[in-house]
Amino acid sequence: MKVATSILSVKENIKGSIDRLNMSNTDYIHLDIMDGIFVENITWHANELIPYLSNNQKPLDVHLMVSNVKSYVDEFKLLNPETIVFHYEAVDDIDSMINYIKSLGIKAGLAIKPNTKIEEIYTYLPKLDEVIVMSVNPGLGGQEFMMPSIDKVNRLKEYKLNNNLNFIINVDGGINNNTIKLVRSADMVVSGSYVTNNNYEESINILKSE
Ligand code: DX5
Ligand code: ZN
């Protein structure tokens, strides 16, 4: 199972955290970007993160929990992320935003909140590189995994296989050594507090062994 580690719960020495992640087996560094509008919390703008990423070697999975998606895409393209994921609930013209991200040479992902049905995004799946199935309500780290996400992940995987599609299914929120066992049909998970509140290398290796 691929693992993306979120630094959202890291309260100090973010540079040290990212350096540690670069010495770990994490497959991606997951950047949770919040604007205080789409979600209550505010996290980082791209220019705040640039100094922390000076030695970064890991691919970046940028998760935009923002209302003005295009403005943040234009900011975060400067970090050369592998993927930019925006929320289905934040954008009217989803197709144009997917096309715009891809026109920058960046993979495009779509995230859905727990109360958004997978059927609502079927039409976009052939164009997507990644789907984030949120297993918590966006906006906070350290929340409990929401059990109804299990069925969503399994049905999305079934749809992907039945339609011969190749987007990555990524599950984000409340992932630890126990809950990861419930979403084995996913391609990747995001884990924040379970990793950054414990021994990074050990926690990541436990998750990757699932
Ligand atoms: C929540 C974020 C998640 C979260 C993951 O809005 O999108 O990435 O930070 O953190 P944990 O693993 O602590 O739930
Ligand atoms: Zn996230």
Structural overview:
The chain is of the alpha/beta class. It has one domain: TIM Barrel (Alpha-Beta Barrel), CATH 3.20.20. It has 7 helices and 8 strands, in the order βαβαβαβαββαββαα. It has helices spanning 14-22, 46-49, 69-76, 94-103, 149-162, 193-196, 200-208; strands spanning 2-6, 28-34, 60-65, 83-87, 107-112, 130-134, 168-172, 188-191. An 8-stranded parallel barrel has the order 1-2-3-4-5-6-7-8, surrounded by 4 helices. Helix 4 links the parallel strand 4 and strand 5 (107-112). D-xylitol-5-phosphate (DX5) is lined by residues 6, 8-9, 30, 32, 63, 65, 136, 138-143, 172-175, 190-194.
Indicate the topology.
Blueprint: E1 2-6, H1 14-22, E2 28-34, H2 46-49, E3 60-65, H3 69-76, E4 83-87, H4 94-103, E5 107-112, E6 130-134, H5 149-162, E7 168-172, E8 188-191, H6 193-196, H7 200-208
Parallel strand pairs: 1-2, 1-8, 2-3, 3-4, 4-5, 5-6, 6-7, 7-8
Give the overall silhouette.
globular
- Derived from helix and strand composition plus strand pairing, the structural class reads alpha/beta
Return Rg in Å.
16 Å
Number of helices, where a helix is a run of at least 4 consecutive DSSP H or I residues: 7
Number of domains: 1
